[in-house]
Amino acid sequence: MTISNELSILFHGHYGILILDNEVTVGHFVATPPLLWARLIQRGGTYGVAEGYPVPLTTQQTQREMRMWDQVSLPVIIQTLKDLRDSADYMVIGNNAGQGLPLAKSVPQALRATKAAIIYGESLPEIKEYEGMGYRTFLRRSDLVFHLAGLAKNARRPLTLAFINTIQHDASTFHLP
């Protein structure tokens, strides 16, 4: 099954958001009540919904999510973005000290200004590069869920999140925020 098909099924009847970010940031996406959450993992040269998902994204779930060290391949993520078509209502790219730039370039130009956002921690020194690519929405991670809730409310559909980890971690490189 293609990523586009999997997300279309997952997001059916929902306002579907695809987030590409570092797994240690997941705690910023917890809401009350918990949002439906699906982790996408690499399998067979593309990304798909991991077994056992979707689940409610609770604080307890974020602790598990932060310790899942997915295989990360920038070329596979970029190809996955090309294969998405219109399966997500909105896309979010984590800047992560500029590491989001190649991913942001892979989002179709037509989506960048109105159906995508760049998120960051405390500052976004790369904002000019993102603006040059056509992005217009820049948010702190801590403001993202509020922003997305407004979009979902306007669409009159419940908010659902899908997530691709973009930074490879292992026991020697992992740290909690």
Protein model, in words:
- By secondary structure, the chain is of the alpha/beta class.
- The chain has a single domain (3-165), classed as Rossmann fold, CATH 3.40.50.
- The protein contains 7 helices and 8 strands.
- Strands 1, 2, 3, 4, 5, 6, 7 and 8 form an 8-stranded mixed β-sheet that branches.
The percent of residues in helical segments reads: 25-40%
Largest sheet: 8 strands, mixed
CATH architecture identity: 3-Layer(aba) Sandwich
Which word captures the global form? globular
Compute the gyration radius: what is it?
A: 15 Å
CATH topology: Rossmann fold
Distance between the termini: 35 Å
The number of E-state strands comes to: 8
Average pLDDT number: 89
What is the beta-strand fraction?
15-25%
Please write the CATH class name: Alpha Beta
Low-pLDDT windows of residues: none
Work out the helix count: 7
Order of helices and strands: HEEEEHHEHHEHEHE
State the secondary-structure class. Answer: alpha/beta
Domains, number: 1
List the helices and strands and how they pair.
Elements: H1 3-11, E1 15-21, E2 36-43, E3 46-49, E4 55-56, H2 59-65, H3 74-83, E5 90-94, H4 101-106, H5 109-112, E6 116-120, H6 127-133, E7 138-140, H7 141-155, E8 159-165
Parallel strand pairs: 1-5, 1-8, 2-8, 5-6, 6-7
Antiparallel strand pairs: 2-3, 2-4
